[in-house]
Amino acid sequence: MDAPGTSLANAPGLEERAYRIRRHALRMGEVQGQGYIAQALGVADVLAVAYFHALRFRPEDPQWEGRDRFLLSIGHYAIALYAALIEAEVIPAAELETYGTDDSRLPMSGMASYTPGMEISGGSLGIGLGIAVGMALGLRRKQSDRFVYNLMSDGELDEGPIWEAAMSAGHHGLSNLICLIDVNRMQADGPSTGVLNFEPLVDKWQAFGWFTQRVDGNDIPALVAAFDAARAHAGPQPRVIICDTKMAKGVPFLEAREKSHFIRVEADEWAQAIAALDAGRQA
Questions:
Q1: pLDDT tens digits for 144-178?
Q2: Which domains are seen in the chain, by residue range?
Q3: Could you give the C-alpha distances from 20 to 13, 41, 178, 187, 277, in angstroms and in order?
Q4: What is the DSSP string of 172-215?
C-alpha cells in the first residue's frame, strides 16, 4: 500500500492474507495439476508480510514510480507471487483460472513483460540479486527513499553471481536493499545442503557487510519484526532476512509427503488439499 503497514479498516489480518495466498496458489495448481506448489505454500507467510505490512505500492498502478520494488529472482516461484498479487488486487482474481495456459498473463515461470507487478523475468537462477543491486543504485541516484526487495531461494546460493552481487551491495552500502532468502532446504537435485552446503549463512552474509537476521519464515510476528528492523536499521548496510520455511506449509498430507522440487498432485487431491487448508484456518 502507499505507506508501510497501512491498511483499510476491517481489512484481513496477515494470517488471513497468508491463508488466502495459499488458497489462490492451490487453485492455480489445480488448473495445471502440478507445479511448484510446495514452495508456494511454504513462502506464503513471507509474501503476506511483504505485501500487506511492508511494501509501498498501488494496486491500480503497478508501475507507480513511488513503489517499492519487489523482485522475484526465483522465476519458478511465480505461482506464489501471482497468488500474492491476486490477493493484493494487482491481478484480477478471475485470471486465476488461466494459470499456465496459452495467452495467459500468468505463465508458469515469471515474466515481467506479461504480468502486472512482476518486476523482472526470473528463471535463470542467480540473477535477481545483481539486478536488485543495480535498481538500488539507481534509486539512490534519484534520491528516492524506496526499497528494493529481492526474494531468492537457498538453491540460488550455489550460484557465483549471488556472492558477487552480495559483495557489491556491501561495498556500495546499499541501505535501500533488502534480500529475502527462502530456506526450504530443497532444490531440483535434492536437499539443498546435500547438493552444496551453504551454512553458516548468518556468518557469511555478515562477512559480506550485510545487516543479517534469521527467522522462522512461517512465524508471522517474527517476520513482521524482522521486516521492521530491516527497514529501520540505521547503518549504511544492505539488509538480508534469512527465512527458514516448511515446504507445503498448511496442508499436512503434503507436508508429510517425500519432498520434491516439482510435484504432481492427483486430481482428487486438490480438493483434499484445499479442505485441509480450510480446516487449519478454522482450528
A1: 999 999 999 998 999 999 999 999 999 999 999 99
A2: 14-282 (3.40.50.970)
A3: 11, 10, 25, 25, 10
A4: HT-TTEEEEEEE-S-BTTB-HHHHS----HHHHHHHTT-EEEEE
Q: Tell me the whole-structure pTM to 2 decimals.
A: 0.93
Distances in Å between the alpha carbon of 169 and those of 162, 164, 173, 254? 11, 9, 6, 38
**CA–CA distance, 2 with 57 (Å, rounded to integer):** 5
Q: What are the tens digits of pLDDT across the range 108-121?
A: 888 898 999 999 99
Amino acid at position 61, single letter: D
Closest CA to 29 of 68, 78, 62, 73: 78
CA-to-CA dists, residue 244 to 45, 94, 144, 279, angstroms: 11, 32, 31, 24
